[in-house]
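Lab meeting, action items carried over

1. Structure of the two-component assembly. Owner: GW. Status: complete.
Input record:
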Amino acid sequence: DQQVKQNSPSLSVQEGRISILNCDYTNSMFDYFLWYKKYPAEGPTFLISISSIKDKNEDGRFTVFLNKSAKHLSLHIVPSQPGDSAVYFCAARPQTGANNLFFGTGTRLTVIP
Amino acid sequence: DAGVIQSPRHEVTEMGQEVTLRCKPISGHNSLFWYRQTMMRGLELLIYFNNNVPIDDSGMPEDRFSAKMPNASFSTLKIQPSEPRDSAVYFCASSLGGGGADTQYFGPGTRLTVL
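Predicted assembly:
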């Protein structure tokens, strides 16, 4: 059963606009969340993360928001650039001290020039 | 610094054949992970090792799959016999493995096609 869900398989956004990628999870024990970005023919690379004790983390154009009560997180990219076109995976750590992660199915973002 | 190295990058084989995928983690990393990427399930964790010891293999789909880590710098994922439904991209990742919020670093993946 998928514990981390990304219900939108794809998203298209105009260059310069905001991209919002969503992720839902089912396990309230998850304590750390990450976003990975994947280009074709490459492995995923770490993008940004957030601890469950926070509700927002920002890094340049990328901001992750966490709503624990709704078990929902989102990644905002502002402004979107064509180079942001990739597959984005949401991931969650099951508990403090764990090394493994649960990943979602990914959302393919296309930024249109 | 070299990242995670995987070989081969592409593998095409026939049903029933044995397939061995190889991974060299980043030097100094203590945790190693094998994932399978499919459209339906995204990135599935198959197995992970801490200090060369398998910790959780609950994601290994069947007994046809096995993984080993004989030393800190090498791991293999073997499928014997292979089946068409095993066709996927297999990723290896490593992390420092300190139990904290360690970033996992992924290799480029092996695209496996079983005919």
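2. GW to write a short summary for the group page. Key points so far: Chain A touches chain B through 26 residues (CB under 8 Å). Residues 87 and 108 of chain A are 4 Å apart (CA to CA).
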